[in-house]
Design goal:
This protein is mainly α. It is about 85% helix and about 5% strand. It has a domain of about 50 residues. A hairpin with a 4-residue loop joins strand 1 and strand 2.
């Protein structure tokens, strides 16, 4: 655009210089035939005027064309801004939808996790209660077995003591019936069983 403007300015200056140097020739009156009548006019000035008029017309057309282009550019810029605003609004809407979907998915996932954790806690509690029950049964059975073994052992000790007394009683005479080690153990067993 700048090169064309410089070229046109140069041509206008050269035309003006040509007109100034040849002003006397341009203003010379010459007869001109206009089909119906004949007139004497300065033909050079007429041609110069036509040239200037065409140049002004050309410049006016170029300015009008440039103004149309600028209006079109402004119109396109407005459309671009409108489209950009719509796109931004749509993008924000889609981001909000995605955010809501992620929140809903997160809530759903949290609920499923809570449900599964609750179920696992319930199963674990049931398993612990069952294990505690089995352990309590085993402990009761073991205590019962210990009591049985202790009673059997006390009875065996009592029998052995009686047999020993009999053997000693035959050889040494009669021993006192109470106060021995076996009697004290037998008495303790009986006290534990009654408790």
């Amino acid at each position: 655009m700048k090169g064309r403007g410089i070229l046109l300015t140069l041509l206008v200056v050269l035309l003006g210089l040509f007109a100034a140097l040849n002003w006397g020739t341009l203003t010379t009156l010459l007869p001109v035939d206009l089909i119906v009548l004949r007139v004497e006019v300065p033909v050079g000035l007429v041609l110069l005027g036509v040239t200037v008029a065409l140049a002004i017309l050309f410049f006016a057309g170029a300015l009008f064309d440039r103004a149309s282009q600028l209006r079109e550019i402004r119109h396109l810029e407005k459309q671009l801004e409108t489209t950009r605003a719509r796109l931004d609004a749509r993008t924000l809407k889609e981001i909000a939808e995605v955010r809501d979907a992620v929140k809903a998915w997160g809530s759903s996932l949290e609920n499923r996790i809570d449900t599964r954790v609750g179920a696992a806690e319930t199963r674990l509690g049931e398993a612990l209660a069952e294990s505690d029950s089995r352990e309590a049964q085993r402990l009761a059975a073991l205590e019962e077995r210990v009591v049985t073994v202790r009673n059997e052992l006390a009875a065996d000790v009592g029998e052995a003591e009686d047999a020993l007394r009999r053997m000693l009683g035959q050889g040494l005479g009669a021993l006192p019936p109470s106060g021995g080690v076996g009697d004290a153990a037998s008495q303790r067993d009986l006290d534990d069983d009654s408790a």
